[in-house]
Each structure stands twice: as C-alpha cells, then as structure tokens.
Design a protein that fits this description.
- This protein has 257 residues and is of the alpha+beta class.
- The protein has one domain.
- The protein is 33% helix and 12% strand.
- It has seven helices and six strands.
- The chain has a four-stranded antiparallel beta sheet, with helices on one face. It has a two-stranded antiparallel sheet with strand order 1-2.
- Bound molecules: zinc ion (ZN).
C-alpha cells in the first residue's frame, strides 16, 4: 500500500493519482516517487504566500545552467531537449554570462532571502523523494526534520552548502544534463564527493551541493567539512553557506574563465 513520505497518510485517506517527479519535468526530470500523495505533490507546485512555488524556484535556479550546457551540445531549439530558454525572474545574457533580476522582482522586499529559502526547501524535497525512490528509506523518523522544513516550512531553517569550482566543467555524460538524477551509488559518483553519515553531497546540472541528512549535523560538521574539502582540493576553492539566491553561480560563469 502506498504511503506518502511527506504527510504519512496512506491510500485509504489520500489519493495517489498524479505522477510526482522528484526533479521537475521542466528540468528534464523523468524519475517518479510513487509514495507522494496528490496533496503534497500539488503543494510543491503551488504559489506560496505571495512568492513563487518551490518547484518554480528550483526550475529557475537550474534552468539557466541546463540551458547553457544544452546549447553547447546543440540540444536547444525546436524538437530538441530544450525548445527555448525562458525565465520569469532573470534577464540572462548567455554570451557574457551575466544575469540580472527582472525589475518587478527587484522591487519585492527580501526577494533574494525568500527565494533562497524556497530553493533550500526544494533541494531537500528532491533529496527525500530520490532517497525514497532509490533506497526506500524516506519514512524513517531520522528524516522528520527534513519533512518539517521542506513540506511545512517549520523547524529550524536548514543549511545548503555550495562548493565553488576552480575550473570550468567538463561533462562526458550529456544524459546527466538532459535527464538529471541524484546519485547515491558510490561507484557512480564523482570521486570528489564524500560519503558519510551526517551529510549528503551531490552534483546537479553542474553544481555541487551538500545538505545535512542527520538532525544532529552540527556535531559532525567539522569532521565532515575537513574530509570534504580535502577530497575536493584539486577542483574546488572552497564552500559557501547559501543565504542569497545569487551566491550560486547560476550562469556557470566559471565556464567563461
Ligand atoms: Zn502527502
């Protein structure tokens, strides 16, 4: 019997008719988490109090880098992986790698902060649905802190760590851009991503992030970040704790250098 990983209700109480894409379809996501009820699925796609939906923010964050890769593969245009690049938040100049927030959003108070919280909630959402899909473990109470933050906006604001690259990105696998997924399988992950109990590191559309996967992550942070930076020292200059949306290299400016 299906049981929702977000609200914990089962098929007797809620419906599971809609397909819940773990990574939005608009980014090429193809994978489905079957244990997400229609209400919770809709929640992530709905407009929040005067802010865009979590799904929109995820799309807006990653679509720019995805478009950049796809155009370099000749995969942008009619009948290609991405027909046309559009953004509701940004004006993007791919040639110069510059990006500005559109006027109507500039005027919104605390736009950057609000959006970065929705981005974080969206990243945790992708994690929980993907770990359920691949490992079948999302109902575990150890993830309650992720459920509270991501689905309900409750509890402490969880962090998102972002690693800054030294060099541009060389991609061998175009499918990772066309149809992005999260990898858990150690053998398939990049060598610079560490596996450990407090944090999960992943690469999504050229960006490398880490999120805590244990409520007591603060205890493990020093050991974790030391090991992580050591593993990344040849390719990354360091890390940031994301507070503002534009701290992520959204246009992959690094590829211009
Ligand atoms: Zn639900």
């Amino acid at each position: 019997m299906k049981k929702c990983i977000w609200c914990s209700k089962s098929e007797e109480k809620v419906e599971f008719k809609k397909l819940a894409h773990t990574i939005p379809q608009s980014l090429g996501g193809k994978m489905i988490c079957v244990n997400v009820c229609d209400d919770c699925n809709a929640y992530f796609g709905n407009i929040q109090f005067q802010t865009p939906s979590i799904e929109t923010v995820i799309k807006e964050t990653f679509n720019i880098s995805r478009a950049r890769f796809l155009s370099s593969f000749g995969e942008m245009g009619k009948n290609k992986a991405l027909a046309k690049f559009t953004s509701i938040f940004f004006n993007v100049n791919f040639r110069t790698g510059t990006i500005t927030v559109k006027q109507k959003y500039k005027l919104q108070r605390h736009f950057q902060e609000k959006i970065s919280i929705l981005l974080k909630r969206g990243i945790y959402k992708i994690f929980l649905e993907e770990t359920e899909r691949q490992n079948g473990d999302a109902h575990d109470s150890k993830y309650d802190f992720i459920r509270a933050f991501s689905r309900y906006g409750l509890g402490e604001e969880l962090p998102l760590f972002y690693f800054e690259r030294k060099y541009g990105i060389y991609l061998n696998v175009q499918d990772d851009i066309k149809y992005p997924v999260l990898l858990f399988d150690k053998d398939k992950r990049m060598k610079y991503l560490v596996n450990e109990p407090f944090f999960y590191e992943f690469e999504l559309l050229g960006h490398v992030f880490a999120i805590p996967i244990s409520k007591s992550w603060q205890i493990g942070f020093d050991n974790y970040i030391t090991a992580s930076l050591e593993a990344k020292k040849d390719f990354f200059v360091g890390y940031k704790v994301i507070k503002y949306f534009n701290e992520i290299d959204l246009t992959l400016q690094i590829m211009n250098d």
